[in-house]
Amino acid sequence: MxxxxxxxxGELAGGLAxxxxxxxxxxxxxxxxxxxxxxxxxxxxxxxxDLLPPNVRMIHGPGCxxxxxxxxxxxxxxxxxxxxxxxxxxxxxxxxxxxxRGLSLxxxxxxxxxxxxxxxxxxxxxxxxxNPDREVVFFAIGFETTTPPTAVAIRQARxxxxxNFSVLCCHVLTPSAIMNILESPQVRDLGTVPLDGFIxxxxxxxxxxxxxxxxxxxEYRKPVVIAGFEPLDVMQAIRMLVRQVNEGRAExxxxxxxxxxxxxxxKAQDLVSExxxxxxxxxxxxxxxxxxxxxxxRARYGDLDAERRFDLRYHPVPDNKACECGAILRGVKQxxxxxxxxxxxxxxxxxxxxxxxxxxACAAHYSYGRHKDLEVLA
Amino acid sequence: MCLAIxxxxxxxxxxxxxxxxxxxxxxxxxxxLLDGVQVGDYVIIHVxxxxxxxxxxxxxxxxxxxxxxxxxxxxxxxxxAP
Amino acid sequence: MSAAVKPGYARPLDLKHGLVELRHGGGGxxxxxxIGELFARxxxxxxxxxxxxxxxxxxxxxxxxxxxxxxxxxxLFFPGGDIGCxxxxxxxxxxxxxxxxxxxxxxxxxxxxxFPLADLARIVQSMAEAARQAGVALVAGDTKVVEQGKGDxxxxxxxxxxxxxxxxxxxxxxxxxxxxxxxxxxxxxHGVAIMSQRENLAxxxxxxxxxxxxxxxxxxxxxSGARLRVMRDPTRGGLAATLNEIAHQSGVGIHxxxxxxPVRPEVEAACELLGLxxxxxxxxxxxxxxxxxxxxxxxxxxxxxxxxxxxxxxxGQVVEDPNGFVQMKTRFGGRRMVDWLSxxxxxxxx
Lengths: 378, 82, 350
What we know:
The structure holds three protein chains of three kinds.
Chain A: H1 10-23, E1 30-36, H2 37-45, E2 56-63, H3 71-82, E3 87-90, H4 105-110, E4 114-117, H5 121-130, E5 136-142, H6 147-160, E6 165-171, H7 174-183, H8 185-190, E7 197-200, H9 203-208, H10 214-220, E8 224-226, H11 231-246, E9 252-254, H12 266-275, E10 276-278, E11 281-284, E12 288-291, E13 295-297, H13 306-309, H14 325-329, H15 353-356, H16 361-377
Parallel strand pairs in A: 1-2, 1-7, 3-4, 3-5, 5-6, 7-8, 8-9
Antiparallel strand pairs in A: 10-13, 11-12
Chain B: E1 5-13, E2 17-22, E3 25-30, E4 42-46, E5 49-53, H1 56-70, H2 73-80
Antiparallel strand pairs in B: 1-2, 1-4, 2-3, 4-5
Chain C: H1 29-43, E1 63-71, E2 77-78, E3 81-82, H2 83-97, E4 101-112, H3 117-134, E5 137-146, E6 154-164, E7 180-183, H4 189-195, E8 203-204, H5 215-223, E9 228-232, H6 238-250, E10 253-257, H7 265-274, E11 288-291, H8 296-304, E12 313-319, E13 326-329, E14 335-337
Parallel strand pairs in C: 4-5, 10-13
Antiparallel strand pairs in C: 1-6, 2-3, 4-6, 7-11, 7-12, 9-11, 10-12, 13-14
Helix pairs in contact in C: 1-3, 2-3
C-alpha cells in the first residue's frame, strides 16, 4: 500500500530508535501525551514503546471520541431506538459502550431496537431513502475528522427533502479537550501529570490545520508536534519533541507535512460552520463539563436535529464508582492503576469506555501490551 | 485521528464521487470535501469521504528525513559532505 | 385415444421457478419428491440409498472421530464458494485436523418457505462436488421447512465421521516449548470475501473465499513423518483465537513473527479500510500445525508440494510461559500481544 507501507518500515524504525536514544538526555524523563486515539492504537499495535528509551513515556490522552462519550449520550441513542422505534444508524465503535441499566446499543438491538451499523453516513441516507415510512436517526460521533461528512450529509438530506432523516449530534472538538487537560490542576499546578509535550492528532489536523495548536504552545509553553498516523511518523514526532524539550523550545511543528497545512481544509471547515455551532458546554466522560467543546446543529437545519425532533433531554449519569476511565483519559492514571482492569473490566466485559474502543488506553493495553505488566512482576 | 488511509483516485464518477484503489481494493468515496481532485491523485479517506490530498513530494521528503535521522553522527557527516 | 397416465408418474419439481413450500418438509410425498429429485439425485450413493431411518455403516479399522458444525453464513453465495461447499469443507476439515481420514457426512437442512428451488439446487450440487473432491459420502440427511420469516433461506448442519489410525494422538494440549508453528497459507481470505458482499461494505475486491477440503493436505503432512502435536483450522476468530486456545490448553506461550505470516495484499488493504486485523478473520481452507522442533523443514516441504499448502510458512515458536500469552514481533520491530478478539468482529471507524 503506497504511502502506508513505507511508513511502517522496520529498518527505518531501527534507525529512528537509535536517533532518539542518542538525543535523549540521561538526566531527565520525557513524558509526551498522544492526544489521538489512532495514535494510541498505532503505538500499541506496532509495539512502539519497545523501541523507545526507558526515560521516554507515552501518556494516552482523551482523543478517542468513543471513550469520551458519556453514558447519558448513549442512553439518548438507546431511548430513541427503543421508544421512538426509529432505525438508528451508528458507526460500529459505539455498539458495545456500556450505558445505563446494563444496556448498550448492542443490548438494545437484542431487545428489538432497529440498530444498524454503518461504515459511512451516506449509508444512513440510503437507509432513509429506502424506508420512507420509518424515521432514521444517525448517531454522529467523532472529532473534527468525522464532522465534515456529517455536515455534508445534513445538507444533502435538506436538498433532497429527506423528511425522515435526522442526526443525533455528539461531535466534539480537539483544541478544547487539549485545553481542558492543560488547565487541569494535575497538569497546571500539581505536576502530578508531568507533560512535556503533545503529539498532535493526524487526521483532525488535516481538517483544522496546524494553526489552532499555536495557542497551546505559546500560552502553556508546551511543544506540539503533529504526527502522521503510521508508527514511523509517531517515532519521528517523538524525536522532534525530544529535541524541542532539550532545546527549551515550545513550538508547533508539523511532521505530517504530506497531509497537513497551516490552514487545513477550508472547504470542510466552511461546510461545518454552515451546519453546526458551538454548544455552550458539553459533558465529556472523565473530563466533566467542558465549555465550548462540542457542536450542535444550527437552527436553520433544526428540523434535522434528532434532539429537537424527538424532544430528547440529556441527563448526566455518573460512571461506575470504581471505574478510573476519567483519570485515565486525563493521563492521571494508567490502566493498571484501575482496580477493575483485567478482572471485572476486560474487552469482553467492558465497564467503561476506555475498554470498549480499540483505541482506548485500557483496551489497547489489555489487547496488545499486558504481557509487559507480568514481565515486570516476574 | 480516526481511521483514515491514503488511496489513489482511479476514476471520477457522478455526484462528486470517485473510485479509489488501495492495493487492488476499490471503493467509492465522496469528494464533497475537496476541490479539483484528479485521477492519479492520492487522497486520505475516512468514513467514505476524501478528507485531503496527500502530497507525494512531502511524503518523499519526510521519508528522507527519517532515513537521515537514522544515520549515526559520523555517517551523517559523511553524507552531508559534497 | 385414451391418454393413459403412466403409473408412478409425478410432475417433476420446477427447479427453475419453483419455491420451497411447507409441504416439502411435511414427511409426505412432496418431501420424498424433494429428496429424490434434488438431494439423492446429486448426493446419492449406495449407503444413502439404504433408505431406512438410520444408515448401517460397514465396520472399519481405527478409532472413530466425529465432528459437527452448523452453517448460517450470509450471503449464501459468495466469491469462491457457497453455503453448500462450505458446510462440507468445514466438517471434513474438523475431522481431518484430528489426523483422521474423513469418510462420511450427514446433513440436516432447515429451509425457509419461499426459498427458490433453483438456489437450493445450486447449493446441493455444490455440496455434491465438494463431497466428491474430499472423497466423502453423504450417508444420512434430514429436511425441515419453517415458515417464511423464520429462517434465513437455508441453514445446514453437517456431521462428519472419520477414522484415526492407531498410534496417532494429536491434541491442543500437546504443544511443548521449542515446538514450531506452521501456517498453510494466506490469512483472511474467507472473512474478507464474505464482508465484501455485505450490504454496507461495498467494494470491488478480487478476493475469493479460500474454502477447501484439507484432508488431502493433512494426509500428506502425516505421511511426511514429521512429528505433529496438533493441527487446527483457524475459522471464526482467526489465527489469534486458534493459537490462544492451544496456548491455553497446553499451558505454554507462543511467539510469532509478523513478517513471516502470509497475507494477500488485497486482503491487507481491505482490512486497512475496515479497521480489521487479518489475525482475527475467519479462514476456511487453512490450517496451523505445531510440530517437533527438528521437523519444520520436512513438514514445510510436504505441505508446499500440495496445492493447498504452497504458501506454507514457519510463523513462530512455542515457548515457556505460564501466562499462556501469544506474542508477536511486529514487522516494525516492537512486540505486542495477539489476543482473542472480543465480541463480534466490527469494522473500526475511529
